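Changelog-adjacent note: as of this version, every example in the card shows the full chain rather than a window. The one below runs 496 residues end to end.
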Amino acid sequence: MIKKIGIILVLLSLCIAVIWFTNEIKNNPKQQTNTSSLDSEKELAEEKKLEEEKEQFTKEEVQNKVSQIKKKMKLKEIISKANMYFDEDEYMFSLIEFQKVLKEVPNDEVTNIKVGDIYYKIHKYGKANEYYSKVKKAKSLDKDKAILSLINDKGVSKENIDELTKKINEFDISEEKKFYYTTSIICVVDYSLCRDKFQKYFEKNWSPQSEELKNLQRAFESFKNFKNNDLYYKAAFITGAFFENAFYYVALKTSEQILGQKYNYRPIMEIAAKSSYEIGDYISAKKYLNDIKKIDPNNSEMSYFLARVYEKLNDKNLALVQYKKALADNYKDQIDIKRRIVFLFFESKDYKKMLYAFDDLLKTKSDKLNINDYSLAIYYNIINDDEQKANLYIDQAIEKFPKSELFYGYKAWIMLEKDNLLDSDLKEIKENIDKAMAIKRNSLILMANGIYELKMKNYEKAIVNLKSAYGMDKSGEYKEKIDFWLQKVAEERNNN
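Full-length structure tokens:
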């Protein structure tokens, strides 16, 4: 009873307190308003501050963007030159030009991606990863290249796999792609776990969207249905799928696991060799290819590939030996090998042998011969004073490529190098220049036209054409010749 009375008294006290507090508020509305007002003012001030900070950040961001655009506009010519070299597979020249751009605009997304792409192309994955990492969130970044560069650079081990997985998951790619990459790298450190993860995934996801997972799915089906129960032979299907997916690091590492048990398993040796090459491990590629050639010495494809490896290792003599071996064993693309032999002699500065190699290339008269083949052969015969051979190739090229301006330009240039030109010569030169001009103007044609105008004593026109040729000659191919003829113009004009 006493306990109940106590509870009632407590409740009465609370009610009285509530009534008193309510009356106080009613009797003092100013205090209530002031409190609310202060709170509102504080909130408004904070909101205003946030808006100002946001606006300021946006202004700075815009100003930085505008500044970058202005700088890039000034660098337009360098960027154009860099892109030209890139498109022509002249990656080192392209890199030099893009680095000039980055000095001015170090945070430019497009240029950082381009530099990353160059390093990716030449198998320098550490540098590729460095540049891709700077623009990880860029929409134009090829995320697959960025991830593969990361993996090829860092490698995969038990110690770093968690960190790699975390970095892969930071990329803006589909969940399916994330699963593919993060599970694939597990194959390097725990093949059984990797295999189980993929198998369970395919049981639940019968129709994956990405080509990479489709290839792996087919490989796992083959793995399951293969009648030979030797796990290493069966695993070859999965390694082959990684190779087909261009995931060369994992293809190599899983190949090594198989070869540890089945060393002379030829298909896997080939995957190991090619994967090593693709990730820039040329020493391993050389080892695997030489091992294959011990088993199959007359395999033209392996000879060709070994030649490519020796080129990368800067052993031009052995590269030449293997290219010739591939030719002798009827490698499928003979023209490609002949071009590469030309390049080897060029790199070695053995121009006499290079010209013989051009002869060997062009005498095939193959449908695969292109404008560049003839153009280079003509150019180097001209500068090595074999006008007869140059003219022979010009006539062949005009017949094969009548719509190319280059060969009319070369014909005019050869004639213009002579002294004591007859009127009939000048007429023929002019006809060839006009034919070339009607197709396309380039540095060669403008240079030839400049020399022609000099011969005709039209000095101002000569200067205009030669300077235009100089400006158009982005690769610097004709700069020395143009300088020579500009000097000639100056001398003749002064003498007259």
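Structural remarks: The domain at 405-496 is CATH 1.25.40.10 (Serine Threonine Protein Phosphatase 5, Tetratricopeptide repeat).
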